[in-house]
Each structure stands twice: as C-alpha cells, then as structure tokens.
Design goal:
The chain has helices at about 1-15, 25-35, 35-55, 80-90, 90-110, 110-115, 120-150, 170-240, 245-280, 310-315, 315-335, 385-450, 455-490, and strands spanning about 20-25, 65-70, 155-170, 285-290, 340-355, 365-375. By secondary structure, it is of the alpha+beta class. The chain has a four-stranded antiparallel β-sheet, with no helix packed on it. Helix 3 (about 35-55) runs antiparallel to helix 8 and helix 8 (about 170-240) runs antiparallel to helix 11 (about 315-335).
Length: about 500
C-alpha cells in the first residue's frame, strides 16, 4: 500500500512539474524576432509611417467634402418693427377714421335735407357702409403684408457639398509625398536596427547563460573536490597527522565554495529570466539551452568577414542618417512652397433654409458654384528666407552626423576585430594554463595523499585549477561574444 502511494505521488509530482523547453540559439533568435515587445512596437511604427505615406499620396486627388449645420434660435428675426406691423394691420382704419371725423359736422348740417328727401338718406348710408368695407379691406391687405414679412427663422439649417482639386501648391504636395516616403523607409530601417539590437542582446544573454551554466558545473566540481579534501583532512586529524587549524582552513574554503555556487545559481536564474524576456516568453518559463551540456564552447567557427565599405552598406544607422538628409531636404522644399502661389479648382452645391432665392421662404433651396482660388504671399518680412535658412541648416547637421557616424562605425569595426583577435589568443593561453593546472592538481592530490605536500599547497592548487577553468570558460564565451559584436558592427546580424 505504501509503495502504491509513493508511485502515485511521484506520478502527480512529475505531472504538475512544467516540462523544460530546450532551445537552440537560432530558436531564441527566431522567437525574439517574432515575439519581442519592443520589436512589436517598432513594427506598429512601420505600419503607421506607411499609412501616412499612402494618405499623403491622396493629396493630388480631388477631395469631396459635405458640411451640414442646424441651429435653433432663441428669438425670431423681424424685418418690420412693432409700430410698422400695427400701422399696416390697421391701414384702412387709420385712413377712414380721419375722414369720418371730418364728415361728422357735414352730416349734422345736411340732416334736415335728408329728412325731407329720404332717398338721399339711404344713399348716404350706403356710402358709409362702403367706406367701412373699404377700411376692412385695407386692414386685411395690410395684415397680409405683415404676414408676408413674417420670417419664423428660429429653425435654421444648411448644407454644402464642396469639391476641391489642387492645381498648383508651390510643389508642397510632391515634396510631402517624397518626405512621407522617406519617413516610411526610415521606420523600416529603425525596425531593422531594433532587430539587430535585440539579436545582439539575445546572443549575449544566451552565451551568458552558457557561461554561468558551465561555471555552475565548475563550482559544483570544485565544491566536491574540497569536500573530498575536507574528508581526507578529517581522517588525518583523527590520526593526529594534521592539526585542527588545517581542518578549519579547509572548512572555510568549503563554505566559500558553497557561497560561490549559490551566487552562480542565482545569476544563472536571472540570466534565464532575461533571455525569456528577450524571447517574449513568460519569466518563469523553464528553459534549457542546447549548448549547456557541452564541455567546451566551440570557438573554431568561422569569424565574420567584411570590411568598412560593407559595414557602410549594411548598417541601418547609415541608412537612417542618409534618409534623414533626404527628409530635411524635402522639408526645405515644403518651407519654400509656403511662399509660392497656390491655385486650386473648386465646385460645390449649397442648400439652406430659410432661403432667399424666391423671396423669404422656409424651404430648403440650393444653388451651385464653380471657380478657382488663388493665393500668394506678397510681403512677409523675409520670413520665407529665414525659414529656408533654418531648414538648410538642419540638412547640414544631418550630413555632418552621417560623416561622424561613418567614422565611428569604422572605428567600431576595427575595435571588434582587435577584440576577436585578443579573445582567440586568450583561448589559446587559457588552454595551455588549464593543462598545467590539471597536472598541478593531480600531483598535489597524490603528494597530499602521500603526506609529502601540505594542505595549503593543495588548496592553492585547487584555487589555480578553479581559476584556470574559469578563465577558459570566459575566453571561449568572449570569442563568441566578439564574433557577435563584429557581425553587429558589419551589419550582418
């Protein structure tokens, strides 16, 4: 029963343990190019600049624009004043009333006559009734005039459809098209530069992991050798052929070796996390590198070939600065275009309510228009000359930066070559020293076993052995890093 429970526990343990992922250098490079966050941002910038260039190309095409507005006014506009409205509405009354006032004395004077002649009385009555009807007709006509001038324009709306075709803009459109094309290419070169930087970081982190993994094995072997020596010294102390002080010295060395191993393990864990971050993997991903199990890092690989001229052609920094000179040249053209004539063809349709095309109407009425627009600055106090001078100075700065970058790249290539040559020499010397250290520790162990060599001499031999192996690892890793740096300098990452 206990055995079955143990088997089940081991099965569960290995099930929940994350499987280690074995990665080669090429796989790390591919993952970094595909999943690195900074490269994703650089690719988004390339898409942005390309879209801006495509948008700039549309500036030569006719543009059609629709504009519509609606407003609700708080007060109504009135063409007539209140006094004018009142006068027009009572036009007949205002005309007849003064006449009636003047005819009243006349009617009183002819009253006896109307009594003697009744037929005349009916005639006068009809005349008065006709006057009253005339007054009402005038009042109605005046009210009609008031109503005709009633606007009711509190609801106002309008729409315009405008077509614009640039004819000549001083060369600004062509210059802007070229400028955005250069910026799109610049974004591509920036992406390439970022990719090379990430690849350099990936290879550096990769070989750092290899170096620390090798040093971890070396520290473990060194600790095992010291523990074996510690065991021998303990036996010698029991046999009273060695002192307690000698044992304490060995104990101190064992503790130092354990602390060194702990530091190497911590550094190795952090280096793996850095490599995971560069490759776009979660930091807690368990990875093992394909070159960790190698006893020796291969240094016989072919060194990168190329010269300074090739570096100038390949390095994205040179292309970026070259494109920058083109961009500043186009900026100078754009500045100059601001002070040249501009000519454009325009056509459009406009609609509004209320409208005035058939008197004042609360209806949507439209009209069309066609023509050209022309503008040209006449006097700007030499503003254009100063701006062109500033733009030309920017272009000169970019050219000087390009020359400076070429000199620095040439120096960088030579520095990387010297570094690689020195690294190869260090490998040869470290291998020679390693042979001596291995032989020295073999003789020291035999002599200590025969008690003809002191423990302090053995510890010195162990220290020399550790240093020789460590220098060999550093020298081999330095060769690979120097080769990577030279490829970066030559632009062949």
């Amino acid at each position: 029963m206990k055995r079955s429970a143990t088997i089940l526990w081991f099965c569960f343990f290995f099930t929940i343990m994350p499987a280690q992922r074995v990665l080669t250098l090429e796989e790390c490079r591919d993952m970094a190019l595909r999943d690195n966050a900074s490269l994703a941002a650089a690719r988004a910038t390339v898409v942005q600049r390309s879209a801006e260039h495509e948008a700039a190309l549309t500036n030569t095409l006719p543009k059609l624009q629709l504009t519509a507005t609606y407003m609700r006014l708080g007060r109504e506009l009135s063409i007539l004043t209140d006094d004018q409205k009142s006068a027009l509405s009572n036009l007949g009354t205002n005309i007849i009333s003064p006449l009636q006032d003047r005819l009243t004395p006349f009617a009183e004077a002819i009253a006896p006559i109307l009594q003697r002649f009744p037929d005349l009385a009916s005639l006068v009555t009809r005349i008065g009734t006709g006057a009253q009807n005339f007054a009402e007709a005038l009042n109605s006509a005046g009210q009609g005039v008031v109503d005709a001038f009633h606007t009711d324009n509190r609801n106002m709306g309008g729409a315009a459809l405008l077509l614009t075709q640039p004819i000549y803009m001083g060369g600004k459109i062509r210059a802007y098209n070229r400028l955005t094309g250069y910026t799109a290419q610049l974004a591509g070169e920036q992406l390439r530069s970022a990719e090379e930087g990430v690849l350099l970081d990936v290879e550096t982190a990769y070989w750092q992991v290899i170096s620390l993994a090798a040093k971890k094995k070396l520290a473990e072997d060194y600790l095992e050798m010291l523990r074996h020596l510690e065991h021998d010294v303990e036996l010698m102390v029991k046999e009273e052929v060695a002192t307690r002080a000698t044992l304490l010295t060995v104990n101190v060395k064992v503790d130092e070796a354990e602390m060194t191993l702990l530091k190497v393990e911590d550094g190795l864990a952090l280096s793996r996390m850095l490599l995971c971050q560069l490759c776009g993997l979660p930091l807690n991903t368990s990875i093992v590198l394909a070159d960790e199990d190698l006893d020796d890092v291969a240094t016989h690989t072919a060194d990168p070939m190329g010269d300074t001229i090739q570096a100038y052609a390949n390095r994205p920094e040179i292309r970026q600065l070259t494109l920058a000179t083109y961009i500043y040249r186009e900026k100078e053209h754009i500045v100059a275009a601001d002070f040249r004539p501009n000519l454009a063809f325009v056509a459009g349709m406009t609609y509004s309510t209320p409208s005035l095309y058939n008197g004042f109407e609360n209806k949507l009425r439209g009209n069309w228009a066609i023509g050209v627009t022309f503008s040209m600055p006449l006097w700007t106090w030499h503003e254009g000359r100063y701006k062109r001078k500033a733009a030309r100075a920017e272009g000169l700065v970019a050219s000087l930066r390009l020359q400076d970058a070429k000199q620095k790249i040439a120096l960088q290539v030579e520095q990387c070559r010297y570094r690689l040559t020195e690294a190869h020499r260090r490998v040869a010397l470290s291998l020679h020293n390693l042979e001596r250290a291995d032989e020295n520790i073999r003789i020291s162990n035999l002599g200590h076993h025969e008690q003809v060599i002191t423990t302090s001499d053995v510890l010195q031999a162990h220290t020399a052995w550790l240093q020789a192996h460590s220098e060999k690892i550093d020298a081999q890793i330095e060769v690979r890093l120097a080769q990577t740096s030279l490829r970066k300098a030559l632009g062949t990452m």
